[in-house]
Amino acid sequence: MPRPLRWSGRTGMPAEAKVVDASVVGALAFGEPRAEEALSLLEGARLYAPVLLDYELASIARKKILRYPERRGELLQALELALSLDIKRVDVDHLAAVELSFETGLTTYDATYLRLARTMGVPLVTFDERLAGAWRKLSSSGTS
């Protein structure tokens, strides 16, 4: 399993706002194969995510610890780093997220990220193909 990348957060340049999901933050924090791509997508951006992000990151850490018990300490440290990244956690309208999940066929969890990006009118950064497809569909229809 690759080692986690270190990310400084801000670069001092004017930053574009983005909503980021656990697939991208997890890839970066836990050194997954797409970690470099995650870093390039996030570097210098003002990042936002639903409060749900922290629970999803904890779930990723748990799964990795079950798979690599000898790396428990390192993985918990990576989780701690991920939880401390400069990402603003935002409450999302749960009823609207449920409605959006029906509209898109996504899980309510994924629809929460989609709802936040849609409400804020900013790009959604995800490695989840279904979520990315729903975002592209909503973005191309001019519904934000």
Give a brief description:
With 144 residues, this protein is an alpha/beta fold. The protein is built from seven helices and four strands, in the order βααβααβααβα. The protein has a single domain, classed as 3-Layer(aba) Sandwich (Rossmann fold).
Report on the architecture of this protein.
The structure is a single chain. This protein is an alpha/beta fold and 144 residues long. It has a single domain, classed as 3-Layer(aba) Sandwich (Rossmann fold), CATH 3.40.50.1010. Helices cover 56% and strands 10% of the residues. The protein has helices at 22-29, 35-42, 52-67, 72-84, 94-104, 108-120, 129-140; strands at residues 17-20, 46-50, 87-90, 124-125. The chain has a 4-stranded parallel beta sheet with strand order 3-2-1-4. Helix 1 (22-29) packs across helix 4 (72-84), helix 3 runs antiparallel to helix 4 (72-84) and helix 5 (94-104) packs across helix 6 (108-120). The N and C termini lie far apart (38 Å).
List keywords for this structure.
7 helices; 10% strand; 144 residues; alpha/beta; disordered N terminus
| Shape estimate | globular
Q: Helix/strand/pairing class, anyone?
A: alpha/beta
Tell me the β content: 5-15%
Low-pLDDT segments, ≥5 res:
1-8
- Binned, the helix content reads 55-70%
Total strands: the figure is 4
Number of domains: 1
CATH topology title: Rossmann fold
Kindly report how far apart the N and C termini lie. Answer: 38 Å
The number of helical elements comes to 7
* Largest sheet descriptor: 4 strands, parallel
Can you identify the CATH class?
Alpha Beta
What is the CA-atom radius of gyration, in angstroms?
A: 15 Å
Mean pLDDT across all residues, rounded? 90
